[in-house]
Structures are given as C-alpha cells and as structure tokens.
Write a structure and sequence with these properties.
- With about 350 residues, the protein is of the alpha/beta class.
- It has one domain: SGNH hydrolase (Rossmann fold).
- The chain has helices at about 1-10, 80-85, 130-145, 150-160, 170-175, 185-190, 190-210, 230-235, 245-255, 260-265, 280, 330-345, 355-360, and strands at about 35, 105-110, 165, 215-220, 270-275, 295-300, 320-325, 350.
- The strands form two sheets. It has a six-stranded mixed sheet. A two-stranded parallel ribbon has the order 6-7.
- α2 (about 80-85) links the parallel β1 and β2 (about 105-110).
- The N and C termini lie far apart (about 55 Å).
- Bound molecules: 2-acetamido-2-deoxy-beta-D-glucopyranose (NAG).
- 2-acetamido-2-deoxy-beta-D-glucopyranose (NAG) binds near residues 280, 349 and 352.
- It is found in: Secreted.
- Belongs to the 'GDSL' lipolytic enzyme family.
- One of its GO terms (molecular function) is hydrolase activity, acting on ester bonds.
- Keywords: Hydrolase, Lipid degradation, Lipid metabolism, Secreted, Signal.
- One of its GO terms (biological process) is lipid catabolic process.
Length: about 350
C-alpha cells in the first residue's frame, strides 16, 4: 500500500525540458495567447483546489518576480517565455483569477496533475483535465463575445488570430499508464494502444477547440520523460548514469503520432496546427548541451512523495547549474533553450511543419 501510493504520488505532477529573453516593451504580434496543459504550464489554477499538486509556496518562484504563484519551477515556465516572445508585457493569468478585458489578451487554463484521460491525476486530488480546460475556454469565449458587444464576427476574428498552445500527456504516462501495474486497463492496453487512445481523445479535444474559433494551434509533444530525476534515480544510485530507455520508447509511440495528427487536422478549413518536437529540442541526458552541469538530480530538497520541493526549504543556490528544480520540473534555465527553438526553429526536426513565429505571422 505504502509503496503503491508512493509510486502514484511520484507521477502526480510532472515535467519536461525546455529556455529566453526578458520582457521587452513591444506590441504583441498576435492579439491573444491561450494556454492548455499540465504542471509544466500551470500558473496558479490549482492554488485553490484540494490537491497535492500545488506549488504556491517557497522555494517555488524564488526567481520569479513576485515570488511563488503556483508555477512548478524557480522562475518562468515555457509558456511564460512564449508569451514574451509573442511580444506580451505580461504572463497569461490563470483562468481561476483572470477577469475583465484582460481575457482578450490570453488566459492560462493549465492544471497540475491533469491529463488527457479523465481519471489521470485523480490520486493527487482535484485538477482540471483537458476537457474541463476546454469548458473553461468556452466560458472565456462567451465572455469575449460580451466584450465584443455580442458581435459574432468580431469575436471570431479575434479568436482566429490568437495563438493557442497545448502541452499535455505526461501525466497520462507518469501518473497513469506507467504506474498502475495492478490496473486491469494495462492488460487491455499495449503501449501502442495506449498512445492511440490518448491521441484519439486529443483529436476530440482539438476539434472542440477549433469549433470554439481557434485556428493557430501549437501542440507540444512530450519530452524524454525517462531522463527525469524521478526516473533515473535508481540508475544513478546503481552507478549507471543515463535515461530509462523503456520509458522514452513508450512515450515515443505517443509523440510519433503527432505529425500525422497535424496533417489530418490541417484539412479543416483555415486550420493551422503545428507540432513542437519536444524530445528533439530537450537536452535529454546531455545537460551540457544547454550549458547546465547537473541533469539527473533536483535543485531543491524534495519530499520523497510526491517529488516536489519541501515547503520552505532553501533550494540550491546555483540554480542555473541544474536542469531540474524538483524531481519532475525543469528550472527556468533549462526551459529557455527549447522555448526559443519552438518559437524560432534551429533545426528542421524542431517543429512540424513550421515554428511559432511563422505561425503567428500567417
Ligand atoms: C522528432 O525528433 C526525433 C528525435 O530527434 C526524430 O526522430 C523525429 O523524426 C522528429 N519528428 C518530426 C515530426 O520531425
């Protein structure tokens, strides 16, 4: 029982790897930016939920202006950087507090612990899974329509010019498929069938988002989860540095389905879906590639369960030398290079079929 719940908790939150540029006063290149996702993107939506998946306390936010907000890192998240690259002078407010006409410029719906499947993350407590996030966006859209004087055409024009990013699925692995061996669904689902099931549900969500007026939609694949501190700890302690290849392989079955999904969705009238090849732009087990020294251990002192930072405990002083802030979530330093490459590709495999800066200009 104890060990089963430990495993559950380990996956409650989650991760990836991504990196930037400070705020520059500029005119945004798109009117708004709407964000769907999990703890890698959450900016505070879980703060008032009954859940273990929370980060609104020190040392989280130690390098963020204003301190802890609910972000699962020391500083900015990848979506904060994308907001800056798009020219916004602020990061997108969580849906839980967004109000007034600020919603025209964007809202962040991401919720730690959330996944594509509705049961994902349940063990951690409350969270907004992907379809619940879509319901929140439906509320936003009706508020936007009011702000636009109930003018359907003006509302649609606004929504179609905005950028939408979606990064979800890590919890469906870390906090569901990979950690519930006793669950009968594992008998039913091979890794390939699991990936297919997730992508089928993702497709439904994306069509719902499209139906709510979104046209420029960025899909973030999953990073090399098998390289996270939570996964490599056992290997490291056995003196075998490296990633858990089996986990990376299982996740690749999900990631490999994105390019065909994008091709299919782009048949919808005026749709412009793109894919960010997160595995390709992440440092994996080569932290030196992003100028970081330590890639296999967290910067903060973590609770064994659920792998998040211990509340109030000082983190490592040299945060720029670490890829990971806690056992699952990258530091601001580690997240910036990938965010840059998603925005402005450096290699053809970084994005498919184009990067965010081009998408924004269409
Ligand atoms: C994503 O990156 C991987 C690893 O570098 C590569 O094998 C794959 O072809 C890339 N996918 C796309 C759609 O470019």
């Amino acid at each position: 029982m104890a060990s089963a719940s430990i495993i559950w908790f380990l996956g409650c939150i989650l991760i990836l790897s991504l990196n930037l540029t400070p705020f520059v006063a500029a005119v945004p290149i798109v009117p708004g930016y709407y964000i769907f996702g999990d703890s890698l993107a959450d900016s505070g939506n879980n703060n008032n939920l009954m859940t273990l998946a929370k980060a609104n306390f020190h040392p989280y936010g130690i390098d963020y202006p204003g301190g802890p907000t609910g972000r699962f890192t020391n500083g900015r998240t990848y979506v904060d950087f994308i907001a800056e690259f798009l020219g916004f002078d602020h990061h997108m407010p969580p849906f839980s507090t967004a109000n007034g006409d600020q919603i025209l410029q964007g809202v962040n719906y991401a919720s730690a612990g959330a996944g594509i499947r509705p049961e994902t993350g349940k063990i951690c407590g409350e969270r907004f899974h992907i379809m619940a996030q879509l319901d929140h966006h439906r509320t936003t859209v009706s508020r936007i329509k009011q702000l636009k004087g109930n003018n359907d055409q003006a509302t649609q024009e606004h929504l179609s010019k905005c950028i939408y990013t979606v990064g979800i699925g890590s919890n469906d692995y870390m906090n569901n498929y990979l950690v519930v061996p006793a669950n009968p669904k594992d008998v039913v689902f091979t890794p390939d069938k699991w990936a297919e099931d997730l992508i089928g549900r993702y497709n439904t969500f994306l069509r719902g988002l499209y139906d709510l007026g979104a046209r420029k939609i960025v899909l973030w694949g999953l990073g090399p989860i098998g390289c996270e501190p939570s996964q490599v700890k056992a290997l490291r302690m056995a003196g075998k540095p490296g990633c858990v290849d089996m986990v990376n392989h299982i996740v690749s079955l999900y990631n490999n389905r994105f390019a065909p999904l994008v091709d299919e969705l782009n048949k919808l009238p005026d749709a412009k879906f793109i894919f960010v090849n997160n595995t390709h732009i992440s440092p994996g087990n080569n932290p030196a590639s992003i100028g970081v020294k330590v890639g296999d251990r967290p910067c903060c002192t973590t609770v064994a369960v659920p792998g998040t930072c211990i509340r109030g405990m000082p983190p490592c002083p040299n945060r720029d030398e670490y890829s990971f802030f806690d056992s699952y979530h990258p530091t601001e330093k580690a997240v910036l290079p990938g965010a840059k490459r998603a925005f402005q590709a450096q290699e053809p495999q970084d994005v498919y079929p184009m990067d965010i800066s081009r998408l924004a200009q269409l």
